[in-house]
Specification:
Largest sheet: 10 strands, mixed
Distance between the termini: 18 Å
Strand content: 15-25%
Order of helices and strands: EHEHHEHEHEEHEHEHEHEH
Oligomer: single chain
Structural class: alpha/beta
Length: 302
Protein backbone atom coordinates (compact mmCIF):
# COMPACT_ATOMS: atom_id res chain seq x y z
CA UNK A 1 0.00 0.00 0.00
CA UNK A 2 0.95 3.64 -0.39
CA UNK A 3 0.79 6.81 1.69
CA UNK A 4 0.55 10.26 0.08
CA UNK A 5 2.16 13.15 1.95
CA UNK A 6 1.41 16.72 0.99
CA UNK A 7 4.52 18.82 0.40
CA UNK A 8 3.86 22.53 1.08
CA UNK A 9 5.32 24.91 -1.50
CA UNK A 10 6.80 27.07 1.26
CA UNK A 11 9.25 24.29 2.16
CA UNK A 12 7.72 23.54 5.58
CA UNK A 13 7.66 19.80 4.94
CA UNK A 14 9.71 18.57 7.91
CA UNK A 15 6.76 17.78 10.22
CA UNK A 16 4.53 15.95 7.74
CA UNK A 17 7.54 14.12 6.27
CA UNK A 18 8.56 12.86 9.73
CA UNK A 19 5.03 11.61 10.38
CA UNK A 20 4.78 10.01 6.92
CA UNK A 21 8.14 8.30 7.40
CA UNK A 22 7.09 7.01 10.84
CA UNK A 23 3.84 5.59 9.45
CA UNK A 24 5.42 4.14 6.29
CA UNK A 25 8.30 2.54 8.18
CA UNK A 26 5.95 0.98 10.74
CA UNK A 27 3.56 -0.44 8.14
CA UNK A 28 6.15 -1.29 5.48
CA UNK A 29 4.48 1.01 2.96
CA UNK A 30 5.81 3.30 0.22
CA UNK A 31 5.49 7.07 0.15
CA UNK A 32 4.37 9.42 -2.58
CA UNK A 33 5.47 12.98 -1.83
CA UNK A 34 3.18 15.35 -3.75
CA UNK A 35 3.52 19.10 -4.30
CA UNK A 36 0.29 20.47 -5.80
CA UNK A 37 0.38 23.54 -8.05
CA UNK A 38 -2.93 25.34 -8.52
CA UNK A 39 -4.03 25.85 -12.11
CA UNK A 40 -5.64 29.11 -13.31
CA UNK A 41 -9.42 29.07 -12.95
CA UNK A 42 -10.13 30.95 -16.19
CA UNK A 43 -9.18 29.36 -19.56
CA UNK A 44 -6.46 31.36 -21.27
CA UNK A 45 -5.18 32.88 -18.00
CA UNK A 46 -2.17 30.55 -18.17
CA UNK A 47 -0.75 32.75 -20.94
CA UNK A 48 -1.27 35.91 -18.93
CA UNK A 49 0.11 34.41 -15.73
CA UNK A 50 2.82 32.26 -17.29
CA UNK A 51 5.53 33.87 -15.17
CA UNK A 52 3.55 33.25 -12.01
CA UNK A 53 2.91 29.65 -13.04
CA UNK A 54 6.62 29.20 -13.62
CA UNK A 55 7.25 30.62 -10.15
CA UNK A 56 4.80 28.09 -8.65
CA UNK A 57 6.37 25.21 -10.59
CA UNK A 58 9.84 26.22 -9.46
CA UNK A 59 8.62 26.54 -5.86
CA UNK A 60 7.09 23.06 -6.04
CA UNK A 61 10.28 21.56 -7.44
CA UNK A 62 12.35 23.26 -4.73
CA UNK A 63 9.96 22.01 -2.02
CA UNK A 64 10.17 18.47 -3.37
CA UNK A 65 13.96 18.64 -3.44
CA UNK A 66 13.95 19.84 0.18
CA UNK A 67 11.64 16.96 1.13
CA UNK A 68 13.96 14.54 -0.64
CA UNK A 69 16.78 15.56 1.71
CA UNK A 70 14.52 14.76 4.70
CA UNK A 71 13.86 11.18 3.57
CA UNK A 72 15.84 8.47 5.42
CA UNK A 73 17.42 5.69 3.42
CA UNK A 74 15.18 2.91 4.76
CA UNK A 75 11.94 4.36 3.33
CA UNK A 76 11.06 4.22 -0.37
CA UNK A 77 9.41 7.28 -1.90
CA UNK A 78 8.53 8.86 -5.22
CA UNK A 79 8.23 12.61 -5.72
CA UNK A 80 5.68 14.25 -7.98
CA UNK A 81 4.51 17.72 -8.97
CA UNK A 82 0.77 17.67 -9.65
CA UNK A 83 -1.43 20.38 -11.19
CA UNK A 84 -5.00 20.76 -9.93
CA UNK A 85 -7.63 23.40 -9.25
CA UNK A 86 -6.71 23.36 -5.54
CA UNK A 87 -4.21 21.73 -3.20
CA UNK A 88 -6.88 19.63 -1.47
CA UNK A 89 -8.36 18.43 -4.78
CA UNK A 90 -4.89 17.66 -6.10
CA UNK A 91 -3.93 15.54 -3.12
CA UNK A 92 -7.14 13.53 -3.46
CA UNK A 93 -6.43 13.04 -7.17
CA UNK A 94 -2.91 11.77 -6.44
CA UNK A 95 -4.28 9.49 -3.70
CA UNK A 96 -6.90 8.07 -6.07
CA UNK A 97 -4.40 7.44 -8.88
CA UNK A 98 -1.99 5.72 -6.49
CA UNK A 99 -4.78 3.98 -4.54
CA UNK A 100 -3.26 5.40 -1.37
CA UNK A 101 -4.56 4.27 1.99
CA UNK A 102 -3.92 7.57 3.73
CA UNK A 103 -3.08 11.25 3.12
CA UNK A 104 -0.56 12.86 5.48
CA UNK A 105 -0.61 16.61 6.17
CA UNK A 106 1.23 19.02 8.41
CA UNK A 107 -0.09 21.76 10.68
CA UNK A 108 -0.51 25.43 9.91
CA UNK A 109 2.69 27.39 10.51
CA UNK A 110 0.64 29.86 12.57
CA UNK A 111 -0.38 27.18 15.08
CA UNK A 112 1.07 26.38 18.48
CA UNK A 113 4.20 24.24 18.53
CA UNK A 114 3.47 20.68 19.58
CA UNK A 115 -0.25 20.89 18.73
CA UNK A 116 -2.25 20.13 15.61
CA UNK A 117 -3.30 23.33 13.85
CA UNK A 118 -5.65 23.13 10.89
CA UNK A 119 -4.93 25.13 7.76
CA UNK A 120 -7.01 25.71 4.65
CA UNK A 121 -5.98 22.45 2.94
CA UNK A 122 -6.37 20.21 5.98
CA UNK A 123 -9.69 21.80 6.95
CA UNK A 124 -11.14 21.13 3.49
CA UNK A 125 -9.85 17.55 3.41
CA UNK A 126 -11.28 16.85 6.86
CA UNK A 127 -14.72 17.64 5.47
CA UNK A 128 -14.47 15.97 2.08
CA UNK A 129 -11.88 13.16 1.95
CA UNK A 130 -12.99 9.60 1.26
CA UNK A 131 -9.58 8.40 2.45
CA UNK A 132 -7.95 8.43 5.87
CA UNK A 133 -6.24 11.72 6.77
CA UNK A 134 -3.27 11.96 9.16
CA UNK A 135 -2.26 15.28 10.74
CA UNK A 136 1.14 16.03 12.26
CA UNK A 137 1.43 18.49 15.16
CA UNK A 138 3.44 21.60 14.32
CA UNK A 139 7.16 20.84 14.73
CA UNK A 140 6.45 17.10 15.02
CA UNK A 141 9.42 14.89 15.87
CA UNK A 142 9.53 11.21 16.85
CA UNK A 143 12.62 9.80 18.57
CA UNK A 144 11.56 6.16 18.15
CA UNK A 145 10.90 6.53 14.42
CA UNK A 146 8.03 4.03 14.63
CA UNK A 147 4.44 3.85 15.86
CA UNK A 148 4.58 2.58 19.43
CA UNK A 149 0.95 2.90 20.52
CA UNK A 150 -2.41 3.60 18.91
CA UNK A 151 -5.02 5.32 21.03
CA UNK A 152 -8.61 5.12 19.83
CA UNK A 153 -10.85 7.98 20.94
CA UNK A 154 -13.80 6.19 22.51
CA UNK A 155 -17.29 7.59 22.97
CA UNK A 156 -19.27 4.39 23.29
CA UNK A 157 -21.77 2.81 20.90
CA UNK A 158 -21.49 0.85 17.67
CA UNK A 159 -19.67 3.50 15.54
CA UNK A 160 -16.79 3.88 17.97
CA UNK A 161 -16.70 0.14 18.53
CA UNK A 162 -16.10 -0.28 14.79
CA UNK A 163 -13.37 2.35 15.03
CA UNK A 164 -11.68 0.51 17.90
CA UNK A 165 -11.75 -2.82 16.05
CA UNK A 166 -10.25 -1.17 12.96
CA UNK A 167 -7.60 0.53 15.11
CA UNK A 168 -6.84 -2.83 16.75
CA UNK A 169 -6.18 -4.41 13.36
CA UNK A 170 -3.86 -1.55 12.45
CA UNK A 171 -2.04 -1.81 15.79
CA UNK A 172 -1.39 -5.50 15.09
CA UNK A 173 -0.06 -4.68 11.61
CA UNK A 174 2.46 -2.11 12.89
CA UNK A 175 3.34 -4.06 16.07
CA UNK A 176 2.01 -1.34 18.37
CA UNK A 177 -0.09 -1.52 21.51
CA UNK A 178 -3.68 -0.30 21.70
CA UNK A 179 -5.61 1.64 24.30
CA UNK A 180 -8.93 3.47 24.51
CA UNK A 181 -9.24 7.07 25.71
CA UNK A 182 -12.31 9.17 26.50
CA UNK A 183 -12.41 12.88 27.32
CA UNK A 184 -14.79 14.59 29.76
CA UNK A 185 -14.87 18.39 29.74
CA UNK A 186 -16.83 20.18 32.43
CA UNK A 187 -16.57 23.99 32.26
CA UNK A 188 -16.45 25.90 35.51
CA UNK A 189 -19.89 27.09 36.63
CA UNK A 190 -20.08 30.80 37.33
CA UNK A 191 -23.22 30.48 39.44
CA UNK A 192 -24.43 27.37 41.25
CA UNK A 193 -28.08 27.08 42.16
CA UNK A 194 -30.38 24.32 43.36
CA UNK A 195 -28.39 21.10 43.67
CA UNK A 196 -25.29 22.98 42.49
CA UNK A 197 -22.12 21.25 41.43
CA UNK A 198 -23.06 18.04 43.27
CA UNK A 199 -25.60 17.30 40.57
CA UNK A 200 -23.06 17.93 37.83
CA UNK A 201 -20.55 15.69 39.62
CA UNK A 202 -23.13 12.90 39.66
CA UNK A 203 -23.76 13.22 35.93
CA UNK A 204 -20.03 13.20 35.14
CA UNK A 205 -19.38 10.23 37.44
CA UNK A 206 -22.26 8.27 35.91
CA UNK A 207 -20.95 9.03 32.40
CA UNK A 208 -17.43 7.89 33.34
CA UNK A 209 -18.78 4.63 34.82
CA UNK A 210 -20.76 4.05 31.65
CA UNK A 211 -17.69 4.66 29.49
CA UNK A 212 -15.66 2.25 31.60
CA UNK A 213 -18.28 -0.49 31.16
CA UNK A 214 -18.48 0.05 27.39
CA UNK A 215 -14.69 0.17 27.14
CA UNK A 216 -14.37 -3.16 28.96
CA UNK A 217 -16.91 -4.76 26.64
CA UNK A 218 -15.12 -3.42 23.56
CA UNK A 219 -11.70 -4.54 24.83
CA UNK A 220 -13.14 -8.02 25.34
CA UNK A 221 -14.18 -8.09 21.67
CA UNK A 222 -10.71 -6.89 20.63
CA UNK A 223 -9.08 -9.66 22.68
CA UNK A 224 -11.11 -12.19 20.72
CA UNK A 225 -9.70 -11.14 17.35
CA UNK A 226 -7.55 -13.78 15.61
CA UNK A 227 -4.44 -11.61 16.15
CA UNK A 228 -5.18 -9.07 18.87
CA UNK A 229 -2.64 -6.34 19.66
CA UNK A 230 -1.11 -5.77 23.08
CA UNK A 231 -3.86 -4.06 25.08
CA UNK A 232 -3.21 -1.27 27.56
CA UNK A 233 -5.50 0.15 30.24
CA UNK A 234 -8.16 2.59 29.08
CA UNK A 235 -7.96 6.17 30.31
CA UNK A 236 -10.40 9.03 30.81
CA UNK A 237 -9.03 12.54 30.65
CA UNK A 238 -11.09 15.22 32.34
CA UNK A 239 -10.80 18.92 33.00
CA UNK A 240 -12.56 22.25 32.75
CA UNK A 241 -11.16 22.79 29.23
CA UNK A 242 -10.30 20.54 26.31
CA UNK A 243 -6.64 21.35 26.82
CA UNK A 244 -6.81 20.14 30.42
CA UNK A 245 -8.73 17.01 29.45
CA UNK A 246 -6.21 16.11 26.74
CA UNK A 247 -3.25 16.82 29.04
CA UNK A 248 -4.85 14.66 31.75
CA UNK A 249 -4.07 11.62 29.59
CA UNK A 250 -0.51 10.29 29.32
CA UNK A 251 1.05 10.44 25.83
CA UNK A 252 4.24 8.72 24.69
CA UNK A 253 6.71 9.12 21.84
CA UNK A 254 5.47 7.40 18.69
CA UNK A 255 1.81 7.53 19.70
CA UNK A 256 -1.02 8.09 17.20
CA UNK A 257 -4.55 9.15 18.14
CA UNK A 258 -7.30 7.68 15.93
CA UNK A 259 -10.66 9.43 15.59
CA UNK A 260 -13.81 8.56 13.69
CA UNK A 261 -15.61 11.12 11.56
CA UNK A 262 -19.05 12.41 12.48
CA UNK A 263 -21.96 10.04 12.00
CA UNK A 264 -24.00 12.90 10.54
CA UNK A 265 -21.77 13.34 7.50
CA UNK A 266 -21.65 11.47 4.17
CA UNK A 267 -21.18 7.72 4.52
CA UNK A 268 -17.95 7.40 2.54
CA UNK A 269 -16.24 10.64 3.53
CA UNK A 270 -14.57 12.25 6.52
CA UNK A 271 -16.89 14.78 8.14
CA UNK A 272 -15.47 16.61 11.11
CA UNK A 273 -17.87 16.99 14.01
CA UNK A 274 -17.56 19.62 16.76
CA UNK A 275 -16.19 17.21 19.37
CA UNK A 276 -13.63 15.70 16.99
CA UNK A 277 -12.55 19.19 15.95
CA UNK A 278 -11.81 20.13 19.56
CA UNK A 279 -9.88 16.92 20.18
CA UNK A 280 -7.78 17.48 17.06
CA UNK A 281 -6.93 21.08 17.92
CA UNK A 282 -5.67 20.10 21.37
CA UNK A 283 -3.89 16.86 20.48
CA UNK A 284 -0.16 16.69 21.35
CA UNK A 285 0.29 13.63 19.09
CA UNK A 286 -0.47 12.91 15.42
CA UNK A 287 -4.14 12.34 14.64
CA UNK A 288 -5.65 9.99 12.05
CA UNK A 289 -9.24 10.68 10.92
CA UNK A 290 -11.15 7.65 9.64
CA UNK A 291 -14.27 8.02 7.43
CA UNK A 292 -17.10 5.97 8.90
CA UNK A 293 -17.49 4.00 5.68
CA UNK A 294 -13.83 2.97 5.85
CA UNK A 295 -13.92 1.91 9.49
CA UNK A 296 -16.99 -0.26 8.91
CA UNK A 297 -15.31 -1.75 5.84
CA UNK A 298 -12.15 -2.53 7.79
CA UNK A 299 -14.11 -3.97 10.70
CA UNK A 300 -16.02 -6.24 8.32
CA UNK A 301 -12.77 -7.62 6.85
CA UNK A 302 -11.48 -8.39 10.34
Amino acid sequence: MTLVVGCPLDGSSAGPMRLAVMLARSAGEDLVVAAVVSEPWTPGMARVDSEYQKFLNDSADAALEQARTELPGDVTATFTRHHARSASAGLLEVADVRDARLIVLGSSTSGMLGRVALGGVSDRLLHSSHRLVALAPRGFHCDTGRVTRITAAFGGGDPTEDLVLAAAAQATEVDASLRLASFAVRPRSIISAGIGSRGEDGVINEWMLGMERLARDTITKVSQLPQPPVLESSQVGHGTTWEQAMNDVEWIDGEVLVLGSSNHGPLAKVFLGARASKIIRHSPVPVVLVPKGRRAERTGRE
